[in-house]
Amino acid sequence: MKKEQTQESLVFGSNLNFLRTRKKLSQTQLAIDLEIKRTSLIGYEKGVQPPFKILVQLADYFGISIDAMMRYNLSKLGEFELSRIDQGFDVDITGSKLRLLVTTTDKKGKENIELVKQQAQAGYTAGYNDPGFIESLPKFQLPFLSRNKTYRCFQIVGDSMPPVAQGSWVTASFIEDWSNLKSGTPYVVVTKEDGVVFKLVYNKIEEEKSLLLVSTNRLYEPYLVSVNAIAEVWKFETFNGFEVFV
User: Fold this and answer.
1) Is the pLDDT of residue 64 over 90?
2) Do 157 and 59 lie in a common domain?
3) d(Cα 223, Cα 33) in Å, to the nearest integer?
4) Of 26, 80, 84, 207, which one has the fewest beta carbons inside 10 Å?
5) CB under 8 Å to 121, separation ≥6 — which residues?
6) Residue 142 placed within a domain
7) Does 103 map to a domain?
8) d(CA 58, CA 69)
9) Torsion sign (Cα): 147, 148, 152, 156
10) How many other C-beta atoms can be found within 10 angstroms of the C-beta atom of residue 176?
11) CA-CA distance, 193 to 244, in Å (whole number)?
12) Phi, psi of 196 (to 5 degrees)
């Protein structure tokens, strides 16, 4: 009986072959390392669906998530992303694996909107997934916003995004899957090096594994940020130009 092949298993097989040959491993050597039959490995590279235990083994061996191996063409990754794999880092293409989102609730169990002041943004970049840090932030509620989303409020730094002026408060909703970011839409992007930035985002994930960040103030040049340098993305919902929070 012919073993099942699916689109995911075909992608997985192609990626398995790519990762193995990139490491200059023979099928025999990889089979020995994993303690599986060489004929089984040949089948996996041709698109036969491996058992879950083998999926985990292979993903662990190459240091990349099962999801990435089954959904994306890894041969299209740039040298930077491939070098990250070699160093033991997983390559996050959609951002979906960064989903440890820390929130707080009020006494009725409703999620708060935490405020991130300009002075707290350096700390937020390091503490965005630290329950103690998030708990320390000021909190409020906006009853007119949908309860189906999680929100955070960021105070804007700089003059790069008129009509949203420096010191304004941007309330934004959490984005779980970055692959669906809509180009030309304003987002708050939390980066590991630049901190909290508010920009128009152009989705370059499929082509370049990056986001293009563009200011509405044309004095500021657009620039690319690799998805590996991003901690969180929040979609613009509303803003308040008055200093009303303490």
Assistant:
1) no
2) no
3) 43
4) 207
5) 154, 155, 157, 195, 196
6) yes
7) no
8) 9
9) negative
10) 13
11) 29
12) -90, 120
